[in-house]
Fold these 2 entries.
Entry 1:
Amino acid sequence: MTKIKFLLSVACCCMLLSAAAQTRKAVFMILDGIPADVIEKTDMPVLKEIAARGGYTRSYLGGEKDGFSQSPTISAVGYNHVLTGVWSHKHNVWDNDIREPNYAYWNIFRIAEQANPSLQTAVFSSWIDNRTKLVGEGLPAAGNVKLDYSFDGLELDKTRFPAGEKRMFDIDESVSTEAGRYIREKGPDLSWVYLEYPDDMGHLYGDSPQFLDAVKKADAQVGRVWEAIKAREQQYGEQWMIVITTDHGRDAQTGKNHGSQTDRERTTWIYTNLADRNARFKTNTATVDIMPSILRFLTIPLPATTEQELDGVPFTGKVSVHDLKAVRNGKNIELTWGIFDGAGKAEILVSTTNNVRDGKGDDTYTRVAEVPVSAGKYTFTQPETTFCKIVVKAPNNTISTWIVDNKYVKHVRPFGRQY
Ligand SMILES: [Zn+2]
């Protein structure tokens, strides 16, 4: 080999290595119906190992309790918070029937595929509706998303998986085994793994040894995915983010039920291996934070509309602000927000239309003011319209909220449940 050829091959190797080192991939897992107190008191060696590399936090879902964004603590509702980064008043999933999801709020797969159609996406799930209805694969209204791989629908097979208490366990075993195999061999860029068995045992036995056993079994199933990730990191130098969460807690009295707004039902949790986390991970962390966090890690930008409508705050990367609140006081609207980084100015925008939700395109915003982020509050005069959306655009992230007058509520939820 000549010196030139040798140098060239060294250069090529270095380029390949650095390209591989920059490859980022993510997988999120939902373990159904495990309250935070239960996951914290159960010996979960895999989750513990993941948290040792990254972190663990409690989080919440259910939107603003007693507020306009309150959302039921029900399974499909919870998954869709993860997928879309918004609460039910926007994504319009209120129960497990998933009658009329509002696909105007793009889910994580649609955003990823739109940003880069060559990204490899996959769903491994013990419930087929997750792909066909929530992701809305192949539906024009949901953007005609085509996943590169899916492994689901086993619950429809009554021969291979006959009725019985352990039916869902057997299905979760197949789903997690296939997720581990596929991720290890193919390394898809973005995957969702969903496991159901813990919730089944919760409904059957409530807080009980049987339920704890199901939770422990889920840890071992997470292990299949985690081992695959570690193998790929080692073999290919890829950077992986894994997020594991749940879709609701359970009632405090029996542990059998969920759907209401009690603390135990609203309190969830997040495990991640990601070390690069910001203050949001320990500040009012919410299920809706997961979607923007994963997309940031993957360096996929949010579409402008998604960013303005987002209810979550990314827990990785730089963040300025969180938790915008708006209160009407006569003709005034009083805004307050939490501050992570007070540097720079925040733009305050208002719209009195809701075109995005109604599928009529973007809204027109009026720029009300520009104020220092560090102020943490701003009051402005707004005619007493029945509805407005307020957006605070800070240097590192954007937050938003709605003002909804009671008389307008039925118009605010044209498809959803009235309450
Ligand atoms: Zn559930």
Entry 2:
Amino acid sequence: MAQQVIILGAGGHGRVCAEVAVRCGFAIVGFCDPARSLDQVVNDIPVIATDDEALLRAWPDGTQLFVAVGENARRVACGEFARRQGIALAILVDPSAIVSETAAIGAGSVVMANVVINANANIGAHCILNTACTIDHDGDLADGVQIGPGVRAAGDVTVGKQAMVGVGASLIPGVHVGHNSTIGAGAVVTTDVPDGVTVVGIPARPITR
Ligand SMILES: CC(C)(COP(=O)(O)OP(=O)(O)OC[C@H]1O[C@@H](n2cnc3c(N)ncnc32)[C@H](O)[C@@H]1OP(=O)(O)O)[C@@H](O)C(=O)NCCC(=O)NCCS
């Protein structure tokens, strides 16, 4: 019998994750989304709950959870809360992705269509690897990292907790992105980025206002 999963979040990201889950062979029980109502059906998937905390406290046995919340801090907090309740977090890897057998992927992470993860890369828990990004050999992403569509992370790149790398950015070999930092769309990161900083442009520099 197919593994069952409930998806928390029925926004754009949640709907994409649901499609990945189906391609992975999961049976989707439903969405939980506080912004929706119980009579709603989203892309043929029913909204079965609107109160995530209540759902997590009365979790149906044998069902996995996938937290499809785009905001990094909220995704990690929710996933960790669920883990403490003993709920199993799904790992979603689209069948079109190429993932090295020597790479590791943490609980609650999603690897979208056409992603490539090369040898000995380590992907933390609650990460989003969005469409067609590449993480080259020995890359290390901490928990809650979000990598945008089409990002190119060369070998030995490290990314700190809950950092966000915007769509189409490139990171040269060995650079480090600090935790909670943001890399702007299309940036080229050529030097380490400290914690909690937003950088943009080519080469990437901190935003000055
Ligand atoms: C970098 C980013 C987070 C900045 O957002 P913000 O803090 O709201 O900044 P603003 O839009 O106010 O822009 C501030 C300045 O930076 C510039 N800027 C913003 N993003 C930029 C980018 N990606 N590249 C170059 N310059 C950029 C703006 O033009 C503006 O310049 P100005 O002050 O000279 O007018 C955002 O623009 C971005 O690139 N986000 C990526 C989102 C993404 O890819 N998500 C993936 C989801 S799937």
